[in-house]
Amino acid sequence: MQIHEFERGLQGRVAIITGAAVGNGRAFCERLAEEGAHIVIADIADASETAKAAEAIGATVLSLNVDATNPDDVQKMAAEVMKRFGRIDILVHNVGKYEEEPFELLSFDQWRQMLDLNLNSLFLTTKAVLPAMKEGGFGRIIALSSDTVWLGTPYLTHYVTAKMGVIGFVRSLASEVGKYGITANAITVGLTAIQRPEQGGRVSSSILEHILPSQSVQRADEPHDIANVVAFLALPASGIINGQALNVDGGVARH
Ligand SMILES: NC(=O)c1ccc[n+]([C@@H]2O[C@H](COP(=O)([O-])OP(=O)(O)OC[C@H]3O[C@@H](n4cnc5c(N)ncnc54)[C@H](O)[C@@H]3O)[C@@H](O)[C@H]2O)c1
Question: Distance (Å, rounded) from C-alpha 232 to C-alpha 250?
């Protein structure tokens, strides 16, 4: 069988990663760079450390100041990427916000902001990149969700609703775009080590107490664990996986 040049890793592919200035997003940039992809960082914060890390691996990096909830920003992002690279192959929808609030204290503003950042941004970025993916006959939309959607974790009605929405989105979109060589999948991520208070994270000890003892793999999830799954889903060889939610959480939830 003849192997197409692109079928060795992600050489020459163009990957946009939203929310990649820090955290999981930085690990995704590094991992996709290792596979040979050109990296586009889309964040509202300074992403120079991520850019340096991906460049050190050998990637060509384009760093853009993008508010993923702003329709104009997101459209401009797609236009700039097309101008610079002429193609968009991969969108990692990583931007998201975690916040605990008991439902009885949750305001409508908090609810709206949560849906805006975690879910509406996925609508906007997908709208922006889809024409280029269709044109290229290849696309990988990979959206970050959370294992809390399977667990019923308390104080997260707004977060879990948004992250379940992400799954609904990829399930339905997959049916429309699969025929163009485009896949849309979600990853339901568990609590990663970066969220622990000792690592500067924001997760309360009550949530940690609830989740950590129930992990069947006796070590914390690290960003590189999730990054390996992002790279796997991005590969051309994964083109048969579509509309799925892959659970990656050290074996807490069974899905
Ligand atoms: N870390 C975890 O334990 C965990 C667990 C489950 C799911 N997740 C999901 O993984 C994703 C990444 O999580 P993380 O912990 O690495 O996040 P993080 O909070 O560490 O980083 C988020 C990034 O998004 C950027 N950002 C915020 N608002 C933005 C906007 N409007 N436009 C563009 N960029 C914006 C921030 O500047 C930051 O760089 C999120 O979707 C999160 O819900 C994380």
Answer: 17
